[in-house]
Specification:
Blueprint (H helix, E strand, L loop, with lengths): L3 H16 L10 H13 L5 H10 L6 H17 L5 H16 L5 H16 L3
Length: 125
Protein backbone atom coordinates (compact mmCIF):
# COMPACT_ATOMS: atom_id res chain seq x y z
CA UNK A 1 0.00 0.00 0.00
CA UNK A 2 1.54 3.39 -1.00
CA UNK A 3 2.22 5.83 1.82
CA UNK A 4 1.31 8.99 -0.10
CA UNK A 5 3.12 12.31 -0.28
CA UNK A 6 2.36 13.29 3.31
CA UNK A 7 3.70 9.98 4.61
CA UNK A 8 6.81 10.26 2.47
CA UNK A 9 7.54 13.76 3.76
CA UNK A 10 7.04 12.61 7.34
CA UNK A 11 9.43 9.69 6.74
CA UNK A 12 12.07 12.05 5.31
CA UNK A 13 11.68 14.40 8.29
CA UNK A 14 12.17 11.53 10.73
CA UNK A 15 15.27 10.33 8.84
CA UNK A 16 16.70 13.86 8.83
CA UNK A 17 16.20 14.15 12.59
CA UNK A 18 17.72 10.73 13.17
CA UNK A 19 20.79 11.58 11.08
CA UNK A 20 21.34 14.88 12.85
CA UNK A 21 20.65 18.33 11.65
CA UNK A 22 23.11 19.93 9.27
CA UNK A 23 23.99 23.50 10.11
CA UNK A 24 23.28 26.13 7.46
CA UNK A 25 26.84 27.40 7.91
CA UNK A 26 28.18 23.95 6.97
CA UNK A 27 26.60 24.42 3.54
CA UNK A 28 28.86 27.43 2.93
CA UNK A 29 32.14 27.03 1.03
CA UNK A 30 34.94 25.61 3.22
CA UNK A 31 37.07 28.76 2.87
CA UNK A 32 34.20 30.90 4.23
CA UNK A 33 33.76 28.51 7.16
CA UNK A 34 37.51 28.70 7.87
CA UNK A 35 37.46 32.50 7.75
CA UNK A 36 34.42 32.60 10.04
CA UNK A 37 36.16 30.38 12.60
CA UNK A 38 39.40 32.38 12.32
CA UNK A 39 37.51 35.61 12.97
CA UNK A 40 35.65 33.99 15.86
CA UNK A 41 39.01 33.22 17.48
CA UNK A 42 40.73 36.45 16.44
CA UNK A 43 37.93 38.82 17.50
CA UNK A 44 36.44 37.46 20.74
CA UNK A 45 34.53 40.70 21.31
CA UNK A 46 32.54 40.27 18.09
CA UNK A 47 28.88 39.46 18.63
CA UNK A 48 26.89 36.90 16.66
CA UNK A 49 25.43 39.87 14.77
CA UNK A 50 28.96 40.97 13.78
CA UNK A 51 29.67 37.51 12.36
CA UNK A 52 26.30 37.40 10.62
CA UNK A 53 26.89 40.85 9.11
CA UNK A 54 30.32 39.71 7.89
CA UNK A 55 28.76 36.68 6.20
CA UNK A 56 26.19 38.95 4.58
CA UNK A 57 28.99 41.20 3.29
CA UNK A 58 30.51 38.08 1.71
CA UNK A 59 27.18 37.42 -0.02
CA UNK A 60 25.77 34.71 2.28
CA UNK A 61 22.44 35.00 4.09
CA UNK A 62 22.62 32.94 7.27
CA UNK A 63 20.47 33.48 10.34
CA UNK A 64 21.93 34.60 13.65
CA UNK A 65 20.73 31.41 15.29
CA UNK A 66 22.46 29.27 12.65
CA UNK A 67 25.73 31.16 13.16
CA UNK A 68 25.36 30.83 16.94
CA UNK A 69 24.71 27.07 16.76
CA UNK A 70 27.67 26.55 14.42
CA UNK A 71 30.15 28.58 16.49
CA UNK A 72 28.94 26.95 19.70
CA UNK A 73 29.42 23.49 18.19
CA UNK A 74 32.93 24.37 16.96
CA UNK A 75 33.83 25.83 20.37
CA UNK A 76 32.69 22.65 22.09
CA UNK A 77 34.69 20.53 19.63
CA UNK A 78 37.79 22.62 20.31
CA UNK A 79 37.29 22.30 24.07
CA UNK A 80 37.10 18.52 23.74
CA UNK A 81 40.32 18.37 21.72
CA UNK A 82 43.47 17.10 23.33
CA UNK A 83 44.82 19.73 25.72
CA UNK A 84 48.18 21.35 25.11
CA UNK A 85 51.17 20.20 27.12
CA UNK A 86 52.76 22.51 29.68
CA UNK A 87 55.70 23.01 27.31
CA UNK A 88 53.37 23.99 24.45
CA UNK A 89 51.44 26.42 26.62
CA UNK A 90 54.69 27.95 27.86
CA UNK A 91 55.98 28.44 24.31
CA UNK A 92 52.69 30.02 23.25
CA UNK A 93 52.69 32.37 26.23
CA UNK A 94 56.28 33.42 25.42
CA UNK A 95 55.22 34.16 21.86
CA UNK A 96 52.20 36.10 23.09
CA UNK A 97 54.32 38.22 25.45
CA UNK A 98 56.96 38.78 22.77
CA UNK A 99 54.29 39.91 20.30
CA UNK A 100 53.00 42.49 22.77
CA UNK A 101 56.45 44.03 23.19
CA UNK A 102 57.86 43.64 19.67
CA UNK A 103 57.41 46.65 17.38
CA UNK A 104 58.98 45.36 14.17
CA UNK A 105 57.58 43.53 11.16
CA UNK A 106 60.00 40.59 10.90
CA UNK A 107 58.52 37.33 12.14
CA UNK A 108 61.99 35.88 12.54
CA UNK A 109 62.90 38.63 15.01
CA UNK A 110 59.62 38.07 16.86
CA UNK A 111 60.30 34.34 17.17
CA UNK A 112 63.86 35.10 18.32
CA UNK A 113 62.51 37.35 21.08
CA UNK A 114 60.08 34.60 22.05
CA UNK A 115 62.92 32.07 22.20
CA UNK A 116 64.93 34.46 24.40
CA UNK A 117 62.02 34.60 26.84
CA UNK A 118 61.77 30.83 26.81
CA UNK A 119 65.53 30.51 27.46
CA UNK A 120 65.14 32.92 30.38
CA UNK A 121 62.41 30.70 31.85
CA UNK A 122 64.61 27.61 31.53
CA UNK A 123 67.49 29.19 33.47
CA UNK A 124 68.04 27.74 36.92
CA UNK A 125 67.12 30.03 39.76
Amino acid sequence: MPIGLGGLLKTLEVKELAMGRKFAVEALPPEIQEQLLAQFQQYPAWTILDHTDWLQEQGYEVSKSAVHRYLKMKSEEAAEAEPLSVAEVTRLRCLEIASKHYNGNDIGDLLELSDQLLDWIRQPE
